[in-house]
Inverse folding.
């Protein structure tokens, strides 16, 4: 990263494995960035865990071996000799870069960027470097008619931390990372409710958090790792903000079921997060970026409500998870988390017994 007294030129880390089409498109879009010449790129190419991943992995190897990356200030590839898995591959890449730079940009391998993505990220990472309220910069912005001060090109908010192009500072990284990885996020639920922190959560954040808060087997460990879900919940519960562009600098092609978290969106596209056509979202096409921030926090509730409307999902699974989340919230609010866990365990066991008995009775007829 080349620095001067007026700017950071943040390095970009790209963990990847085998999604060659997406990865190549991502790197080529970074090449088209006007600030590519100032930017160091670090690729963590994981080793395929089985043969079904080998073809895509080999296509990435061939691309890396045959392409010209001289447009970047520096381009380096870490080719893993054993399979590390997504989180370890990402974490080792993050540690390597954080040990050497003051900030960084983490991207998934299924993204495409506006020509001014790097300029936007670098300018924001510089401007907010000493602002302890601002913990993240995201290049992605949901397709909302955000309410901001006139002329603003980005705004600070505390209800969304999309990890699809996320800027992080080394000095701020331990603050939330240690808290999340120590498992405190779920343990402190009763205190958060006492403070009314659920009011700062969007609909999906509430559903994710309170569904997991009494879960006997959390399906994904989303609250023990630095995920967009845990980071967003951290902002609502512990404080902090993310700076987001009014018009997205990032497009996500990963809603085909090929990634670790985003499910496949099939059937007709709609206007909610569960069925939106992310691959055709409008993003910025400008080659330069003028930083005009809205730091007023004036429209925080209105914008949070906008996102909650987008996040509404009337499929049976999400509706059931919301029902569980609301019940868990009520239990923790009334009894505290330790006793609520015992009550939940009893309810869970009783439901299994009664379900088994009803099946047995039905089969005896």
């Amino acid at each position: 990263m080349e620095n001067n007294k007026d700017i950071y030129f943040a390095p970009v880390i790209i963990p990847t494995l085998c999604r060659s089409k997406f990865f190549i498109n991502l790197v080529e879009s970074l090449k088209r960035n006007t600030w590519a010449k100032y930017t160091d790129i670090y690729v963590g190419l994981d080793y395929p865990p089985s043969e079904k991943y080998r073809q895509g992995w080999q296509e990435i190897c061939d691309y890396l071996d045959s392409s010209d990356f001289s447009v970047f200030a520096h381009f380096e590839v870490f080719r893993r000799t054993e399979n590390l898995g997504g989180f370890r591959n990402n974490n080792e890449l993050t540690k390597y870069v954080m040990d050497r730079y003051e900030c960084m940009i983490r991207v998934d391998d299924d993204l495409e960027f506006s020509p001014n993505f790097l300029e936007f990220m670098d300018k924001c990472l510089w401007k907010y470097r000493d602002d302890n309220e601002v913990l993240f910069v995201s290049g992605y912005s949901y397709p909302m008619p955000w309410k901001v001060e006139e002329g603003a090109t980005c705004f600070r908010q505390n209800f969304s931390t999309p990890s699809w192009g996320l800027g992080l500072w080394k000095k701020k990284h331990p603050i939330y990372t240690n808290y999340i990885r120590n498992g405190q996020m779920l343990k402190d639920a009763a205190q958060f409710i006492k403070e009314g922190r659920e009011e700062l959560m969007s609909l999906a954040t509430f559903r994710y958090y309170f569904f997991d808060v009494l879960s006997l087997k959390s399906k994904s460990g989303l609250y023990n790792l630095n995920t967009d879900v845990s980071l967003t919940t951290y902002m609502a519960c512990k404080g902090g903000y993310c700076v987001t562009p009014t018009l997205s600098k990032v497009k996500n092609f990963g809603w085909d079921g090929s990634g670790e978290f985003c499910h496949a969106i099939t059937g007709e596209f709609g206007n909610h997060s569960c069925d939106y056509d992310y691959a055709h979202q409008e993003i910025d096409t400008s080659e330069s970026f003028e930083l005009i921030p809205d730091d007023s926090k004036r429209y925080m509730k209105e914008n949070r409500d906008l996102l909650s409307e987008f996040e509404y999902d009337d499929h049976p699974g999400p509706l059931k998870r919301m029902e569980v989340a609301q019940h868990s919230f009520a239990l923790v609010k009334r009894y505290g988390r330790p006793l609520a866990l015992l009550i939940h365990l009893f309810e869970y066991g009783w439901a299994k017994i009664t379900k088994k008995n009803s099946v047995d009775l039905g089969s005896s007829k």
